[in-house]
Each structure stands twice: as structure tokens, then as C-alpha cells.
Amino acid sequence: MTDTKLSKYTAADIQVLEGLEAVRRRPSMYIGSTDERGLHHLVYEIVDNSIDEAMAGFCSRIDIVIKPDGSVVVTDNGRGIPTDTHPRTGKSALETVMTYLHAGGKFDNQAYKVSGGLHGVGAAVVNALSSNMWVEVRRDKKLYRQEYERGKATGPMKAVSNGITETGTTTGFTPDTEIFAETGFDFTTLAERFREMAFLTKAIWISFRDERPSAGLRTGIAREINYYFEGGIKSFVQRLNKDRRAVHEPFYMERGAEGSVVEVAIQYNDSFTEHTFAFANCIHTIDGGTHLTGFRSALTRVLNDSARKQKILKENDANLSGEDVREGLVAVISVKLPEPQFEGQTKTRLGNAEMKGIVESAMGDELSTWLEEHPSDARRIIEKCLTAARAREAARKARDLVIKKGVLDDSILPGKLADCSERNPEVRELYLVEGASAGGTAKEGRDRRFQAILPLRGKILNVEKARPDKMLAHEEIKAIITALGAGFGEDFDPLKLRYHRIIIMTDADVDGAHIRTLLLTFFYRYMPALIEHGHLYIAQPPLFSAKNRKDVRWFYTEKDKDSYLAKLKDGKGIAIQRYKGLGEMNPGQLWETTMDPAVRTVLQVNCEDAMVADLVFSQLMGEEVFHRKRFIQSHYDKVRNLDI
Ligand code: 0RA
Predict the structure, then answer these.
(1) How many angstroms does the Cα of residue 47 sit away from the middle of ligand 1?
(2) Is the CA virtual torsion 215, 202, 258, 237 positive or negative?
(3) What CATH number should be reported for the domain whose range is 233-399?
(4) What is the structure's pLDDT at 500?
(5) Reported pTM
């Protein structure tokens, strides 16, 4: 209901009550876009209002239903939108909220509402962009109702029943097909957002049901899901650590400061990677911002102080670095502030300068108290950071040695590499091939002018479970780094790449998928720029062949094979073969089906958009992992852009 613009107006005590024509004229101004993203935004707007009511302490459950006709109904058990007459419009407060942009009065009370800037544009905007909308309010023992069409009330608000004991608000709307090209909601997209909302709002119950006839049929999955996390973000970190060994009980704090609220939950595990998620007003700020900066500096400072106090760090020891204190860290930071400023191209970085100090001091105080009150947890955490520091030092030495010895020097290319003759990196391709035998086939089948082959033997190291020194000791990883010639980690320089297309070619089976995942993890963690610049690809070998005496046909999906078979009048003499391993093809076939640029399809691995973090996020949350893995394994032939 309130957005940043409004709060500025009210500060100057100007009330702007505008009709909704502007919203229909330029919808993107209010919801970002009119594609699927904007469409789903409508639902978030309505649910956000109920979340705000929960944050104010008056609402404990929210029910969201996609109705069989494709409309959405959101019900909460809050106080109910007020129904008394609004002094400026002479209409009910409900109608004012629903039919005027930036409806004011008590609704823009900042102490009550902290909505997400761009995202807080509210129910009126949804109303303007819906062909039909209705609201029911349960309040003062009555049930009130009003209906709207494309933002205009079709009649006054009416009390339709008496003797109502509950309170709350129910909103139903049908997105307008005049505005949205696509009006079908995606269950998973909505469910993931609701899960996030549930984690970020302590003890809220969110129930989500899809009643569309197609919902359950297509997938066989029951389309109803309920979220409830007693401990909010504390449950969140515990959940993130579900499949790891936690080092201690979670640290959790919540504190109000200068009109904002800071919430932090931390739990270290025994892995070597960091997973930190920062939110501002329930919006996942994947590019971080001032709240994250404040958090990090408090963490480093407080752990160093504590380590000195406990004499785990001796006088002559160097301080723990930011990297040291983040190894194995799982953390969630959630801030709520009245006027959030989101920066960057995707508006996913918090810009409010004051948040750095607010988070730093709130978190600093709370964490140092907690460490004092939990001495054994404190000791375990600090010992872990110290181990990280020592390992990092050892890794640095190992790396210096490795560099000195020239092991990573590109003048000494790995022996297994079959390089190409072309000199221009832009046209050079490197195939990373699973297995020595498939590697051999690829070497024979390739165009040696511009295609190089690096066979990889056995499993790739899971980099999440290994420190950089271990990683460098791993032959396959070392071979990849050397062959690419552009360094790794902070030193990675895409300008030095010896190939501009790096193509992962693995078998179409579970092992192949696993190796691919490990390789993607490695590139994502140690050469993210490689992915960002679009250099990483996945080859797509066929799954089936159909042979008769004269020729061979290849199929990349089960469906293509089946429809070919169905069209055949006479299937006699046709031999269908399922290809599992690359090694089952001869060099000519491998070239023809998978490597020839004129006919092959390769999937470009893409992490430019924010989805990467989002997926890491979802994968860590567990639930969807199985489905995603299956998705990647069985449908990767249909995806052109694969996000990792
Ligand atoms: C302002 C004041 C009051 C309730 C709400 C807003 C409210 C809005 C929405 C939107 C969806 N669900 C909601 N629930 C509550 C109540 C003021 C009072 O009762 O004193």
C-alpha cells in the first residue's frame, strides 16, 4: 500500500490521491514488467500486505489458492482492512485503499508498514491490472464485501453478514488478459517465494493450494504445500545445515534500532564454503549491500576480539581474516527498514548507507554477548576459524610452490591434452570429456584445427568439501586449470583464456550427470567469470539411434524417437539403440551427432541472472533437489539456457 514515493509525500504532509488510470497506461512502472515476472508480482503484492499484518503481530496464517478458473484468492486472519469512512475521499477506507494510488491516512504509518520499495505498490495496482477483483473483510462482527472491474468499484462496499466472530481479509483477483500476455501462474515459482516469506516471518503459517484441473495431473505431484517455521531465520539456517555437520547451536538475534529491525542467524558447519543469504524487507538481496557489509565487519571484529580475550589468538598471531571467519559459515541476515533503496541493474543490492552501522553495532553487541554466554560454542567456532587461517596459509605456500615449480604454467600443458592447431582463442574449443576411452574417440572424431580434447579420468573432486590446497593437488582439476591458462579464484583472468568455448561432454547417465554437476560447481566457485562471459557449454550427445540397412538417424529425446517410430508404416528392419555412454559411438558418429558445429546443439551455461543464487538457495533447502536433479537429467535436452 505504501511505497517510498508516498512516504516522501507524507513527510511533506501532502496527500496524493490519484486514480488508477496511470497504472493501466503504464503497468511496468508499477510492477516492473507485464511478462510472467510481473504477473507473479501481483500475487506477491497481495500476500505482502498480509505479511505486513503478521509482522505487526496480528496475523498468524495466510492461505493462498489458485482457483480452477485461474484466479487467485488470498486469505489472512489479521485485523481486516478498516471499513470506516475515509476523511479525504468520503468513501470507505477499504474502497480508498483499493481504488486510489498511494492511498494515505493511517495506511502509510511507517511504524506499521515496512514494504519493499518497488514491491510495496499494493492492492490498488493489482486491482487496476485485474479484470475482476473482490475483497471481503471480517471485522466488527460483520462481513463486508466489495467488487471491482479493472480498478473501478462496481458498487459500494456492503455489509453482507452479521455475527462473524473471526477477523481478517480475503482478496480474489483475475489478472487482466488485456494487460498480461500470459496469465497462467507457475506453482513452483510462487511456492518458492512463499517458502522464503515463511522463513522470514517467524511463526507464520502459509498454505498454498493449486486447484486448477491440470495442476496435479501433469506432474502427479499433489499441488498443496504448507510452510511453517517456528524459529523464522533460525529454522532457516538449521535447515540449510540439514545435510551437514553443524559445529554449534545456532546464534540468533533480533533487535530494533533507529526505526529498523535487524535479525541475524548464524550456524557454522564443518564444510569449507560459505552460504550467506541477505534480505531487506523480505526481498532477497543477492548482490548484498550495506546490511551485508555491516554484518561481515561485525563478524570479523567480534570473533577476533573473542579469540584474543580467550587467548586462542596469541599476541604475535595475526588477526583472523574475513575469509577465515566465513569458512563453513551459514548465515541469514534479514533487515526491515522504512525506506529501502535497492540498487544495481536488478535492484538486488541494498543501498541505504545507514544500514551498515546499524547492523554492525546491533550484531556486534549481540554476538559478543552470546559468545561470552556460550564459551564452549565460542571456542569451537574460533578454533574452526583458526584452522581455516592455518589452512589458508598452508594453501598459499603450496600455491606459491606450485606456481614457482610452474605446475600451473601454461607452457607446460597437461600430457593428456590433445590441443588444436588454431591460434585464435576465440575460435578454439576445449572438450572436457568423461573417461579415457570416450576421450580417445573424441580425439579421433574432432576437427583438430579448432577442437582440443582433455579426457578426465574418474570422479572430479567435490570442491565444496575440499580446501584450495587439496584442490590443487587433484590431477584432473590441475589439468583443467592449466589447459585453460587463465588462473583461478581471485587471479582468474578471462583475457588469458586459451579457449573461448569450454564444452563439458559427459555420458547421458547418472554418473555423467554427477560429473557434470561437480564440474559446474568447480567453475562456479573458482571461475565464475568464465560462466558470466558465456564461455561454458554442455555438449548434447544423442540418446537413441535408429538404424536400418541404408542409414542411421539420431534422436536427442525420447519424444522425438517415439514420434519417429509412430510415423513409420513398417518398423521392420529398424534397430533402435539406446546410447548411454559416449564410448558407444565411433569417432565419425561422435563428430556427426555431438561435435560438428554445423549440426550439434550445445547448451550455454548461464549464471548472469540472479537465478544462480536462487537455485543454490533452493538446492540447499533440500526439498526440490530431487526434482531438479531429475529435471536436469531427463529434460536437459530441452533447455537451451541452463542455470546452475
Ligand atoms: C491498516 C490498519 C489495519 C489493518 C490493515 C491495515 C490491514 C491491511 C491488510 C491488507 C491485507 N490484509 C490486511 N490486514 C490488515 C487495522 C487497524 C485497526 O484495526 O486498528
Answers:
(1) 13
(2) negative
(3) 3.30.230.10
(4) 96
(5) 0.66
